[in-house]
diguanylate cyclase (Diaphorobacter aerolatus), 338 residues
Amino acid sequence: MAPILQHLVEMTGHRDHLRLEASVLTTVLQLGKNMEVRALEFFFSDSQVMVRPRSWTHRGEVISSECEAPSDPARGVLANMPELTECLREHCVAALRSSNNTHTLWLPVWIEDKAYACLEITQPRAFSRRQRDIIMGVFQVYQNYQNLLDYSERDALTGLFNRKTFEEHFARITSQPITGFDQLDTGADVPQQWLAVIDIDHFKQVNDVYGHLYGDEVLILVANLLRSSFRAQDRVFRFGGEEFVVLLRSATLEQASQAFERFRQTVEKHMFPQIGGITVSIGFTSTMDGAPVEVLGRADQALYYAKENGRNQVRYYDLMLSRGEVKPQISHGEIELF
Ligand SMILES: Nc1nc2c(ncn2[C@@H]2O[C@H](COP(=O)(O)OP(=O)(O)OP(=O)(O)O)[C@@H](O)[C@H]2O)c(=O)[nH]1
């Protein structure tokens, strides 16, 4: 099989966005001499669009950044790259910058009408027409495949991540180094990762009184409030029905409590068309101990307690455990089969 086809076959065999990205970098690298290829990520920070290299090639190997985007020392302001900024504003498929011996081609990865990333290809000589056609062909296969992957990971109604992607996100988030954490800091309230289960109160009544279409509208609006309330590095899922899960990164207990409480208040204050006010109950816990299912179980216990004790409130599992308000779960390792 021709090498380029072989690479395409290998590329579309991946079921993970980052591996797929690494694979397209190595594929593009075959298409020219002395080329450098990077995947750039766009994100918001301090009210401006920032850009940083997320992965790049070095001597034929792909290297991925270990930093979280907002604290990456390699980040910069997108406005400093005028050709790329213009391309994103105009929804173009490509941008080009040429100087004497550096020629750079940018290819934004559009998912629906948003670009969160782009490929950057740099080489010392100008891109020939033929080379550009081949690069664009490979890139379009990659972009279509990214779109397909993204579609299979999203909940169709709200566009949030669906339940089947949870374990992978959980593993990725909990294995990353925690930013803002000073190893010498032995204080109790150090940043860590948190998991919250959020459930709309008396949602059945919304459906019963106003009908399923209004119920669906409430789910979409709550999903939008979730998206705007949590940071880009956090992860929000719809677990099914009127239940949502948030993975909150690098926050102290106080910050996590405030973030979940703020969200509860945001929903309480929001006016939903026709329906008026609704509320949510929230249970949360640290992700430090246990498998995803155990962490979920603890947050669920806290949520259940909130539901049983008046709803429209945030409950923290570990505090409830220390007060004897919940019983500890039996972990998998402690289950006696006989
Ligand atoms: N409109 C709409 N309703 C859904 C969807 N998925 C689940 N539901 C409804 O969500 C409701 C969930 O109701 P319950 O689990 O009884 O809970 P609740 O009424 O919210 O009460 P509490 O959670 O105890 O406060 C049911 O009526 C489901 O039919 C959906 O995608 N759209």
Residues 157, 199-204, 207, 212, 215-216, 219, 241-242, 307, 311 surround guanosine-5'-triphosphate (CB under 6 Å). The first helix runs from residue 3 to 11. The two ends are 56 Å apart (CA to CA). The longest strand covers residues 48-58.
